[in-house]
């Protein structure tokens, strides 16, 4: 069965960096677009970034452009999100999400999330 | 301010029907497929509806979706207390080159 397990969250000071990982299993990771989506406390879902199966196409939300970088390691079935210049408003639960087969923006599997807290 | 607009909350009694609206524009709902998600606090969001009106096999037919122009609707019949959750619509916005979600609607089953 499909499993997505995020890790790497934690407490970081404003201006700091953090790298999130997502370990994927149960599907052909190398053939699937992947996304990061977050939810700030008391707020709704906010898409952060997506990467094509090969890694050649990347889209980012305006709120993270220039600060966050999505990447993947297909042989290791892993997705990453490098987060730099973190701000208080980046505090959120970050989900790794897999799109429905043949789609790129419809997500049928989500991880349980990893909490990132940006605070001094 | 979300690109897609949803009512903040809806409520209905057990066994009744409720609808949740999602409005957007030609750059998102008007020209792209829409999905609906159910999200209970502390859990992973669940896909309820995709391609405007299709259900994953494990989703009961109490859940339905429709789309007309730049607006979409999620319908839930035979409400159960277990349906209490936050519901989000989502799609691609061709102008923003971004996935966009509605602000979410909290469903209360009274």
Topology:
The complex is a heterodimer of chains A (120) and B (110).
Chain A: E1 3-7, E2 10-12, E3 18-25, E4 34-39, E5 45-51, E6 58-60, E7 68-73, E8 78-83, E9 92-99, E10 107-110, E11 114-118
Parallel strand pairs in A: 2-11
Antiparallel strand pairs in A: 1-3, 3-8, 4-5, 4-9, 5-6, 7-8, 9-10, 9-11
Chain B: E1 9-12, E2 18-23, E3 35-39, E4 46-49, E5 63-68, E6 71-76, E7 85-93, E8 98-101, E9 105-109
Parallel strand pairs in B: 1-9
Antiparallel strand pairs in B: 2-6, 3-4, 3-7, 5-6, 7-8, 7-9
Note the main attributes of this structure.
heterodimer, A: 120 residues, seven-stranded mixed β-sheet, four-stranded antiparallel β-sheet, 11 strands, 51% strand, B: mainly beta, six-stranded mixed β-sheet, three-stranded antiparallel β-sheet, 0% helix, 45% strand
> Roughly how many Å is the radius of gyration of chain B?
13 Å
Helical residue percent band of chain A: under 10%
- Return residue spans of chain A where pLDDT drops below 50 for at least 5 consecutive residues: none
Q: Give the averaged pLDDT of chain B, no decimals.
A: 96
The H/E string of chain A reads EEEEEEEEEEE
Number of helix segments of chain B? 0
Radius of gyration of chain A: 13 Å
User: What is the rounded distance between the termini of chain A?
Assistant: 40 Å
Shape annotation of chain A: globular
Largest interface, with counts of residues having CB < 8 Å to the other chain, equals: A-B, 23 and 28 residues
Oligomerization state: heterodimer
What does this 3D model show about the protein?
Chain A contains no helices and eleven strands. By secondary structure, chain A is mainly β. With 110 residues, chain B is an all-beta fold. Helices cover 0% and strands 45% of the residues of chain B. Chain B has strands spanning 9-12, 18-23, 35-39, 46-49, 63-68, 71-76, 85-93, 98-101, 105-109. In chain B, strands 1, 3, 4, 7, 8 and 9 form a six-stranded mixed beta sheet that branches. Chain B has a three-stranded antiparallel beta sheet with strand order 2-6-5, with no helix packed on it. In chain B, a hairpin with a 2-residue loop joins strand 5 and strand 6 (71-76). The radius of gyration of chain B is 13 Å and the shape is globular. The model of chain B has no long low-confidence stretch (mean pLDDT 96). The interface between A and B is medium-sized, with 23 and 28 residues.
């Amino acid at each position: 069965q499909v499993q997505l397990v995020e890790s790497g969250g934690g407490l970081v000071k404003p201006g700091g960096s953090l790298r999130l990982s997502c370990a994927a299993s149960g599907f052909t990771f190398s053939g699937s677009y992947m996304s990061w989506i977050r939810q700030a406390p008391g707020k709704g879902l906010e898409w952060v970034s997506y990467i094509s199966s090969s890694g050649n196409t990347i889209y980012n939300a305006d709120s993270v452009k220039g600060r966050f970088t999505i990447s993947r390691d297909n042989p290791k079935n892993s997705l990453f999100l490098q987060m730099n210049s973190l701000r208080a408003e980046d505090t959120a639960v970050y989900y790794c999400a897999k799109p429905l087969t043949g789609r790129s923006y419809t997500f049928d599997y989500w991880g349980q999330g990893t909490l990132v807290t940006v605070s001094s | 301010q979300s690109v897609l607009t949803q009512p903040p909350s809806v409520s209905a009694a057990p066994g009744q029907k409720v609808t949740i609206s999602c409005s957007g524009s030609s750059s998102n709902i008007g020209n792209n497929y829409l999905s609906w998600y159910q999200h209970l606090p502390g859990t992973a969001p669940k896909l309820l509806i995709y391609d405007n009106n299709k259900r994953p096999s494990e989703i009961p037919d109490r859940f339905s979706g429709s789309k007309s122009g730049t607006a979409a609707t999620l319908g839930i019949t035979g409400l159960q207390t277990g349906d209490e959750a936050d519901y989000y619509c989502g799609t691609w916005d061709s102008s923003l080159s971004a996935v966009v979600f509605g602000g979410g609607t909290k469903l209360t089953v009274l």
